[in-house]
Amino acid sequence: MQNSNRFHYGVVYGIFAILLLPLLSTALYSLATRWGATILPDGLTFDWYIQLWSDPRFLLAFGQSILICLGALALGTLLIVPTIFVVFYYFPRLKWVMNLLILLPFAVPPVVSSVGLLQIYADDPFPIVGTPWILIFTYFTIALPFMYRAIANSMHALNLPDLMDAAHLLGASTWQAFLLVVLPNIRKGLIVSLFLSFSFLFSEFVFANILVGTRYETLQVYLFNMRHTSGHFTSALVISYFMFVLIFTWIANRLNK
Amino acid sequence: MSYVEVTNLAKRFDSTPVFKEINFTINKGEFITLLGPSGCGKSTLLRCIAGLNSVDNGSILVDGEDITSLPAQRRGIAMVFQSYALFPNMTVTDNIAFGLKMQKLSSDEIQRRVREGIEMVELNGREDHYPHQLSGGQRQRVALARSLVMQPRILLLDEPLSALDAKIRKNLREQIRLIQQELNLTTIFVTHDQEEALTMSDRIFLMNSGQIVQSGSAEEIYTEPADAFVASFIGNYNLLQAEQARAMLGLDTQLKVAIRPESILISSLSPVDTRSHYSQPISGTVKSSMLLGNVIRYRMDTDNGELVVDLLNRSSERLVSRGTQLELQVNMDEVREVA
Amino acid sequence: MSQSVNQSSQEMDTATPVSRKKKVSRERWVAAGITLPFFSLFAAFQIIPLIWIVVNSFIYDEEWALDNYLEILDSAFLQQAFWNSIVLSFMASLFAMIIGTMGAYSLRHVNTRLRDFILSFNNMASNFAGVPLAFAFVIILGFNGAITLLLKSIGWLDDFNLYSLSGLIVIYTYFQIPLALLLLYPAFDAIQKDWEEAAILMGASRAQFWRKVGIPVISPAILGTFIILLANAMGAYATVYALTSGNYNVLTIRIASMVSGDVFLDPNLAAAVSVLLVLLLALVTAVNEWLLKRSYHAK
């Protein structure tokens, strides 16, 4: 009994160590003055962070990333929430269609989608390749599975038909019932999904690089383009980026409790 | 000589005792019920007998053999779980055969015993079904058969009926009791449902906070509650504080008093049974009435507190309406002082 | 019904079954209309690109033809990409699945605080993939990486190359572990403690319980997780692109270079390779479904 317990703790700490190691070394690297052909760095410094956070190109990419993510999520919320409500309330038999649709962004690799997107939206009538718009629209589709699952789960827990009947009997119109009863009840699920989607979209690289690249640089593309500069500098960038994502994931986890 | 002997059994989780100084004996073929509220330690006691939990002190003897430190596999004890614990990847037949295969019996023997088991619990025709294709009642029958074919020395039943519908529960209750009597199988049944305990058992061990507070036949426990806890747990006893009892019944007592609702009569409605000794009339007002099939239950307000009175529902009598003043008399032979 | 009653209140007061039905059906049309922007946008940016790919994979020199597919059959380079993708994804998914299964099982045997901490940490780690991960791996496992040096100094490692197949398997395994753990941890919920106890009371050992009940019950979940990992690895692009600057030959790198590279652009060939990649993923999923159908779950 005691032995097997020790084994389980060993496995869990082992996996933790494996997952932590790259992060930890990157963090250490970002704080090192120089880390050449030795196992430990020579000295510690904050210079790389100062250099990073005073680079205007970094700040621009950072801001543009946030802008695109917020845009995609705003668009998503505006379109997805009413659609889920309509499907659940008016056409519950069509839920399977939605379940099939949300599989697509998972099943089709981004590289494959971008082949089509690149050709369709390069020229008229919608020449939006190379602009933030194509990212906002594409991110809307890849955030859909996250948002749909969370909102549909909340909606499912509501017992929508009874709730709407009750609201109608009390004199509310469908619109009022949606606004005053349904929306407040799915708010938590929605907010959690927004935080999770934000972390996910913020980490997106494939679409950003292939569809837009340096014409409207996001943080991930900036990071990639900085690959030939000092490793300490890119490490500071990786850690800054990861801390940002971490905060959002952490908030989502907290809200979910 | 008793078949099962439990002596001084004690169990702690960390430092909090789950139960202590548990002593009892069971005869071969007896149906024993461990009855008590949730958290009283009855399930843990059962698991200790099964060998799924270890004990900290005391001994368990079965047929003269000390099994206290024997692993669960070698105790010859079978158990039916509340959740059925059927293996979802096996058919009814495979579930029932599982234990027999573990014993490496010949396949002829396994086939024969499985068929017997299926017939005993009346599951013919379901042999090749998987658990998720069965109803709750059918699943519990499979679990029962799976235990019975092991021909255990003791059968343990851990709240086997509590996940089922009322009607199925009643059916299965009778079936379990019939099979148990037919096989003369020593059985320990755990439940928190007093009706289940009263209808099924040869003897009931009533447990509260880690101790057996009373043991005896259903009738003994029902009519002679050992203390206020038993009185309140079994039936719908009226429980009076000492001062209430003194004022209402003129009793000279320092203890609480328990009165069964059916031992109170309403003088104007029912004749007094002359063989019994009755209290002085107590005046009361009808607060509510409830029809429980063959019984009408009145809640009465008296000067010294509320009383619940059960009357047989006879067609000659009409329901007395709320607010009516009535005279009550308590059959003093049925009044019990309890600690 | 009086003439003076105005139109709208008449509609409300005399909700005969017929007019009520009409009103409900109009409401449903309005409701359906509300979903229109959602479905059009989703179609425009998810479904139409997919259709474009399928259609254009059959167009060669502006004519209907199978030449794109024939070219794949002729090209040793493209076939190598298929083969590399399959080997890399299969190995990495296998390792991640083994580690994830062990982790998910062991997580059930440690105290709650550690378990909750690891699960939250795992959620966060699942975001650590792609370009940042590639950079981190260069730092620890590159030619002058700290771990490379450490392992070399104690003689455990002779010629490890992060930029080769074995290096890629390591990094792919790494970013698949959080996903494997995320998917497998709930799967162990399916194994109830009662089952193990019931089996033990019937004379089974722990090993027998796992062989006869535990593994059969959990294997569909493990297999399903493996399929998801496989698809995830086959579709992965950012990590290998950032690590090797597009010099390691896998499918996603090939596809991307044919639509956004500097030298050799051939979107129609890229479409054909994409179709084959998606078909490959579909085939794997279909095999999984078929295996599931044969198991007891479907009966």
TrEMBL record, chain A:
<dbReference type="GO" id="GO:0055085">
    <property type="term" value="P:transmembrane transport"/>
</dbReference>
<feature type="transmembrane region" description="Helical">
    <location>
        <begin position="58"/>
        <end position="91"/>
    </location>
</feature>
<feature type="transmembrane region" description="Helical">
    <location>
        <begin position="98"/>
        <end position="121"/>
    </location>
</feature>
<feature type="transmembrane region" description="Helical">
    <location>
        <begin position="12"/>
        <end position="32"/>
    </location>
</feature>
<keyword id="KW-0813">Transport</keyword>
<feature type="transmembrane region" description="Helical">
    <location>
        <begin position="133"/>
        <end position="151"/>
    </location>
</feature>
<feature type="transmembrane region" description="Helical">
    <location>
        <begin position="189"/>
        <end position="212"/>
    </location>
</feature>
<dbReference type="InterPro" id="IPR035906">
    <property type="entry name" value="MetI-like_sf"/>
</dbReference>
<keyword id="KW-0812">Transmembrane</keyword>
<keyword id="KW-1003">Cell membrane</keyword>
<dbReference type="GO" id="GO:0005886">
    <property type="term" value="C:plasma membrane"/>
</dbReference>
<protein>
    <submittedName>
        <fullName>ABC transporter permease subunit</fullName>
    </submittedName>
</protein>
<feature type="transmembrane region" description="Helical">
    <location>
        <begin position="233"/>
        <end position="252"/>
    </location>
</feature>
<keyword id="KW-0472">Membrane</keyword>
<keyword id="KW-1133">Transmembrane helix</keyword>
From TrEMBL, chain B:
<dbReference type="GO" id="GO:0005524">
    <property type="term" value="F:ATP binding"/>
</dbReference>
<dbReference type="InterPro" id="IPR003439">
    <property type="entry name" value="ABC_transporter-like_ATP-bd"/>
</dbReference>
<dbReference type="InterPro" id="IPR050093">
    <property type="entry name" value="ABC_SmlMolc_Importer"/>
</dbReference>
<keyword id="KW-0067">ATP-binding</keyword>
<dbReference type="InterPro" id="IPR013611">
    <property type="entry name" value="Transp-assoc_OB_typ2"/>
</dbReference>
<dbReference type="GO" id="GO:0016887">
    <property type="term" value="F:ATP hydrolysis activity"/>
</dbReference>
<keyword id="KW-0547">Nucleotide-binding</keyword>
<dbReference type="InterPro" id="IPR017871">
    <property type="entry name" value="ABC_transporter-like_CS"/>
</dbReference>
<dbReference type="Pfam" id="PF00005">
    <property type="entry name" value="ABC_tran"/>
</dbReference>
<dbReference type="InterPro" id="IPR008995">
    <property type="entry name" value="Mo/tungstate-bd_C_term_dom"/>
</dbReference>
<protein>
    <submittedName>
        <fullName>ABC transporter ATP-binding protein</fullName>
    </submittedName>
</protein>
<feature type="domain" description="ABC transporter">
    <location>
        <begin position="4"/>
        <end position="234"/>
    </location>
</feature>
<dbReference type="InterPro" id="IPR003593">
    <property type="entry name" value="AAA+_ATPase"/>
</dbReference>
<dbReference type="Pfam" id="PF08402">
    <property type="entry name" value="TOBE_2"/>
</dbReference>
<dbReference type="GO" id="GO:0043190">
    <property type="term" value="C:ATP-binding cassette (ABC) transporter complex"/>
</dbReference>
TrEMBL record, chain C:
<keyword id="KW-1003">Cell membrane</keyword>
<keyword id="KW-0472">Membrane</keyword>
<feature type="transmembrane region" description="Helical">
    <location>
        <begin position="163"/>
        <end position="188"/>
    </location>
</feature>
<feature type="transmembrane region" description="Helical">
    <location>
        <begin position="29"/>
        <end position="55"/>
    </location>
</feature>
<keyword id="KW-0813">Transport</keyword>
<feature type="transmembrane region" description="Helical">
    <location>
        <begin position="128"/>
        <end position="151"/>
    </location>
</feature>
<dbReference type="GO" id="GO:0055085">
    <property type="term" value="P:transmembrane transport"/>
</dbReference>
<protein>
    <submittedName>
        <fullName>ABC transporter permease subunit</fullName>
    </submittedName>
</protein>
<feature type="domain" description="ABC transmembrane type-1">
    <location>
        <begin position="82"/>
        <end position="288"/>
    </location>
</feature>
<comment type="similarity">
    <text>Belongs to the binding-protein-dependent transport system permease family. CysTW subfamily.</text>
</comment>
<feature type="transmembrane region" description="Helical">
    <location>
        <begin position="269"/>
        <end position="292"/>
    </location>
</feature>
<dbReference type="Pfam" id="PF00528">
    <property type="entry name" value="BPD_transp_1"/>
</dbReference>
<dbReference type="InterPro" id="IPR035906">
    <property type="entry name" value="MetI-like_sf"/>
</dbReference>
<feature type="transmembrane region" description="Helical">
    <location>
        <begin position="209"/>
        <end position="231"/>
    </location>
</feature>
<feature type="transmembrane region" description="Helical">
    <location>
        <begin position="81"/>
        <end position="107"/>
    </location>
</feature>
